[in-house]
Amino acid sequence: MEKKAASQLYIIGAGFAGRTLAKEIRTKAVFGRVVAFLDDDPEKIGRRIEGIPVLGPIRDVAQLLRMNPADEAIIAIPGASREYLAELYGILKSAGFQRIRILPGISQIIEGSAHLIQTRSIDPQDLLGRTPVAVNLKESLAYLREKRVLVTGAGGSIGSELCRQLLSGGASRLYLFGHGENSIYLIDRELRLLQEEGVGEKATIVPVIGDLKDRSYVRYILRRLKADVIFHTAAYKHVPMMEENPVAAIENNLFGTRNLVEAAKEQGVKGFVLVTTDKAVNPVSVYGASKYLCEKLVLAAAGPDCRFMAVRFGNVLGSRGSIMLLFQKQIAKGGPLTITHPDMRRWFMTIPEACSLVLKAGGVGENGHMYILDMGEPVKIRDMAEQMIRFYGFEPERDIKIETIGVRPGERLDERLWDEGEAPVPTPFDRILKVERKGPGEFDVDSLIEDIAPICRFDPAKPAAYRDAALLRSILRNAIPGMGPA
Q1: Which terminus, N or C, of the chain has the lesser number of Cβ atoms within 10 Å?
Q2: Which are the catalytic amino acids?
Q3: How many other C-beta atoms lie within 10 A of the C-beta of residue 159?
Q4: Within-domain flag for 334
Q5: Which range marks the domain in which residue 257 is found?
Q6: Is residue 456 part of a domain?
Q7: Could you tell me if 108 and 43 lie in one domain?
């Protein structure tokens, strides 16, 4: 068999991250050969760095490359704005690069730890929305050094990114908790590969398969693991699907959280961070109601021995089951892209930025308080659809149609990050807001749980209540104003 010729690589950005990548690629020649750095800095253009020429300005060099298209470009500019990345992508695309990769995760890269294994193909989430805030992870995660950290829902979009970033924190053990065998296997293998390639520190990684709904098991496993801090991301999250399966949503989200909170207090866990959602604000869906109740439950659990807090934010770009992934699949088959309403708007933040801020809040947040991530301005879903169509080289409506299919059960046109009884106040930390209650805000979540319990768990004294979705909705509507009809 004829050996494949080595790929020609151009690294965009001759800063620390780009130079680090060039060194690594040189030691792993199987990945190709770095032909040149492309950079716009006049002080670097014309020099040689690590024996590699620095060419620029990027736009001018890219025009010359059209005559002889190169194989691959790797964008290694961690501090680049969304606008600049979009400009770079357009330049490189028109230059004929067969593949364009990027170093994601600004919070990790900005500290200088750039590795080839962290690169991935550029996609719409890198270009949409605002520029992420830079978070110094090693500094933010100092409170977790030598601690045992448990992440529930570790195989999910938020949970898995928390785990990637936690590699930089110096934790002694990192427990990956989830009930999905395959998703936990995948993040477990990924984290070990990252460690092998020098990413982060050498925390002991422990995958744990289990179900938070099993109260006895949760108490048993926390007793065994002796976790110091818990990041609780596990939940059923798909709004329309949970409208069709309301009992499952409450059973998993609310009762699973209660089991975890009780076990955490029993076992002396020192920190507990609930990841929650804008859909918990004046909830109209069962999913939103379940998270609303989880917020009440967690914040009410605050005591002198364990710091309980919650971090609330809106949608994240590229999460599993998100609208972005649906749009990508619809574009791949030629459309149409389906939106529920032309005026539907959502906040969007990248998963790495949201997770960096959650981890930061976990260290600086006060016991018994809610924190909100500043999401910027909401984005119309139709505008996002049009941007994604153009990203893939098509023109909206001319090449790929956009169809309106109607608002689904449990959805609303706009979400809110706080309700009338809450007041967000700035903190010393960029894009993290603290919520202050305007009124007393009492809510007897324990009594509500007792009313709901026979619906989720069979009670011989109330057999007719078991799995009665209509009864569940009735109880929720009486307790939470604004809940949708039965």
Answers
A1: N
A2: 279
A3: 25
A4: no
A5: 137-315+350-370+419-437
A6: no
A7: yes
| Counted domains in the chain | 2
Residue 465 main-chain phi, psi, to 5 deg: -80, -20
Strands 402-404 and 337-339 turn out to be parallel
Backbone phi and psi for residue 234, each to the nearest 5 degrees, phi listed first: -65, 130
CATH number at residue 31: 3.40.50.720
Kindly give the pairing relationship between strand 72-75 and strand 148-152.
Answer: unpaired
Question: Please, where are the H alpha helices in 309-391?
Answer: 323-332, 351-364, 381-391
List per-residue pLDDT tens for the chain, 486 residues long: 444 556 889 999 999 889 999 999 998 877 789 999 999 999 999 999 989 999 999 999 988 887 676 789 999 988 788 899 999 999 999 898 989 999 875 555 545 568 888 898 998 888 887 788 878 888 889 999 999 999 999 999 999 999 999 998 899 999 999 999 999 999 999 999 999 988 888 899 999 999 999 999 999 999 999 999 999 999 999 999 999 999 999 999 999 999 999 999 999 999 999 999 999 999 999 999 999 999 999 999 998 889 999 999 999 887 877 888 899 999 999 999 999 999 999 988 889 899 999 999 999 999 999 999 999 889 999 999 999 999 998 999 999 999 999 999 999 999 999 999 999 999 999 999 999 987 666 788 999 999 999 999 999 999 999 999 999 999 999 999 878 654
Which residues make beta-bridge pairs with 149?
174, 229
CA distance 100 to 141: 32
Q: Enter the tokens of residue 80.
A: 């680049």
Compute the C-alpha angle 281/283/289, nearest 5°. Answer: 105
The answer to whether residues 65 and 152 belong to one domain is no
CA–CA dist 387, 403 (Å, integer): 15
Q: Are residues 167 and 282 in the same domain?
A: yes
CA dihedral over 263, 418, 276, 472, signed as positive or negative: positive
Domain boundary among 122, 151, 177: 122
In a domain, 320, yes or no: no
pTM value > 0.70: yes
Last residue of a domain, one of 122, 150, 169: 122
Instruction: Indicate whether 86 and 199 sit together in one domain.
Output: no
Residue 128 belongs to some domain of the structure: no
